[in-house]
Amino acid sequence: MKVEPSLEDRFQGCLLGLAIGDALGYPTEFLALPEIRKRYGPNGIQDLNGNPALHSDDTQTSMAVARALVDTGQNGVENWMEALVREFLIWLRSPENDRAPGNTTIKGCQNLEAGISWTESGLVESKSCGAIMRVAPIGLYFHGDPSELRLAAWASSVATHAHPTALVCAEATAFCVSWAVAGIDPSGYLERMKAVQRDSLQSWDPVLGKSWKRAGYARPEDYLAAGWAQLLGELEKVPLALAKAPADVCEILGGGWGSDEALACALACVLKFPKDYMGAIRSGANTGGDSDSIACIAGAISGAYLGHKSIPKDWRRHIENRQPLIELSRQLYQKHAR
Predict the structure, then answer these.
(1) What pLDDT is attached to residue 1?
(2) Which residues have a Cβ under 8 Å from the Cβ of 67 and sit 6 or more positions away?
(3) Which helix (H) or strand (E) holds 49?
(4) What is the CATH number of domain 7-335?
(5) Which residues contact residue 116 at a Cβ distance below 8 angstroms, ignoring those fewer than 6 apart?
């Protein structure tokens, strides 16, 4: 009889899962699928490179979010964002911040460093996937508290990515992780998004500032509705991608450079391999789009759903920052909002 993973196993599976997915897709970022196959063989990249296998800024910023949650997560969003801003600025000037970080994230952090409030520092014109590749710890920590999950996901995005699509995609990605860690089958996630949207449109909190106004909207509801329209329009293509089963999900769902495309691609990978962590992240890594972010997000969701034992021991052993990731998962589990 199969034993379901414990909640603590799922927490660890999520953080290790995102880092390993990130590391598998990192060497193939910016490469078209034919070039990936030329370099790694007819099946594309199948195994981690290096010992340790290096991850990208996706995992670095996810760890920053996790550390801020461990430090101050239950003391209110304003205190948590103070901690997150500190973590972002440490990362900004770290000598290890050399893993092709996104321009929007860098510019947002530079604005924070210049003393601009986190409610004003984000770029309203950018919906890039940097807003969602780092939110998995929020889905873990607040998996039992939808209102706090939403607020934390929005706040984490606003600091760098203030486009409405980035905000709602950060929220939606965090919810996917929260459902996964609760053991909810991924087949229902697309339908669950409808309920999330209904609550989302009525949930703006003044603590988040007025990014909606900076983006040119009359009301926060209009701002959020615009983001949801873009996300749901992209998610509607996921069943088609699964039915047509292209070698590269980006052929139908776009390159994953935007938050909406990245979440759609990652969900397609998970839905294609709902019980197979390796299959999900290999599908994400072997794409002509933002392969490390797609595989990172898919790895977070799949790892949270299946637990850390679904990940090959050899991969867990060789991932960069293995022990810090395990320790962060343990701390998040011990301190998560119950």
Answers:
(1) 60
(2) 83, 87, 328
(3) none
(4) 1.10.4080.10
(5) none
